[in-house]
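WARN  no MSA supplied for this record, continuing single-sequence
INFO  ligand: zinc ion
INFO  echoing inputs
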Amino acid sequence: MTSNGPARAELHLHLEACLRPATARELAERSGLPLPKQAPYQDFAEFSPQYEAARDLVLDLSVLHRVAAELVADQDARGVTFSEVNLCPASYGGRIGADEELVDAVLDALPRDRCGLILGIQRAEGPQAGWRTASLAIRYAGRGVTGLGLVGPEPPGPAHWYADHFAAARDAGLMSVPHAGETSGAESVRATLDHLQPHRILHGVRAIEDPAVVADLADRRICLDVCPTSNVNVGVAPDYAAHPLAALVRAGVPVSLASDGTYLFDTDLDAEYRHAADDCGLTVAELESVAATSMEFSAHG
Ligand SMILES: [Zn+2]
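INFO  complex generated
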């Protein structure tokens, strides 16, 4: 399916969450491991082990390369012009290779003119362990890695733990693109603004709980990479109609739309735009503005 709408980037994707369904079935059969359940989920607790199950299906470096290559082909087929992909090499614990080998395998499959790669620190791992990924990202700055991320449930890992990591990454020319405002509220978005100087925030939607944080996002032109289907499935919003997407856009916050993961959330960028229009109430002009924002704030913007 190719979209006829304006050029659109998808800036919030996790590699293992974007398995092609047929590939997931094949890998589960080959390995004897469980097939990760796709959405709908009841909550974050149901979703989280499915992400781990998807990562477990990445059996070796050749599978990792294949999953990345299939993601690129699928995004091309959807008419997505530019994709930014999150990867947490440390989450593999060396199971399929050294961190550098994982990054090399993914970068080999991602065309630089159509993709960026974000390496993510896992929030709970702590400042000392976080340098493993920050240093890795910095070594690959200018060689395909475009940003440093921060992923995982927010309460165990406050933003200030990672201030030095993100400062070093920005000095190396990487974008600061942490997750926040998903499993914690507006105070986590505020801490991210204060300590990590983000270019964008992945999710960030719970900023809506504090009008002062929303105003700061608008004034400082910090983009939120919003994934309505993901949010509804993990309990960040009760349903699409109650999702803060339209309120954030109308408050002047730059917003991009994304799927978070096409396989696990059983959606894609076209479906997110449809939900934004039909269920979240965005106008055609607002949808065009969101599409333009997604290009402007991409690694190539
Ligand atoms: Zn995400």
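DSSP finds twelve helices and nine strands in the chain.
INFO  checksum written, moving to next record
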